[in-house]
Amino acid sequence: MSRRLLAVLAALATFAGITVGAAAPATAAPRILYYDASQAQEFRAVVDQGASIWNSRVANVRLQPVPAGRTPNILVYADNGWPRTYTTSLGNGRWYMGRQAVNQGYYKPRIAAHEFGHILGLPDRRTGLCADLMSGSSAPVSCTNANPNSREASTVNANFGSSSARVLVSVGEFHDFQ
Ligand SMILES: [Zn+2]
To answer: How far is the CA of 47 from the centre of ligand 1 (A)?
Structure first.
């Protein structure tokens, strides 16, 4: 066997080893939820920010802008009322970026991430703590935390995981930015 052929075989073996190593334990692909922020008016960017926050904190679900020709799971609107979410099932529904809370000074990315949190199956928890995303407006108006805490993130991962530890979301459930 030539020296050159040996080198090629060695390179192939190394390549194969790397490929096998990278293919290691199979994890389920995240569930993709498409959102449509085209009617969120001046809040389109903050809606994207709310989605990015969740995408950086959970592995089992991804929030993505809806591609052309596809039906969105989530519709986002803006109006002069209080921010609120209408959930039709886990991962599906619509929510409103309400200017009433924005005008009172509540942090817009926190509102957006909170409302997405309802779509992802989290209820309101009026703990008054800024560290809790789902404490909503029970936390001080000065609260600028827009990230779910570890318990909130793990609940969402469980909701979209393969285990049976899911939070039941009833059809037509309503939450506001309480
Ligand atoms: Zn809420």
So the answer is: 15
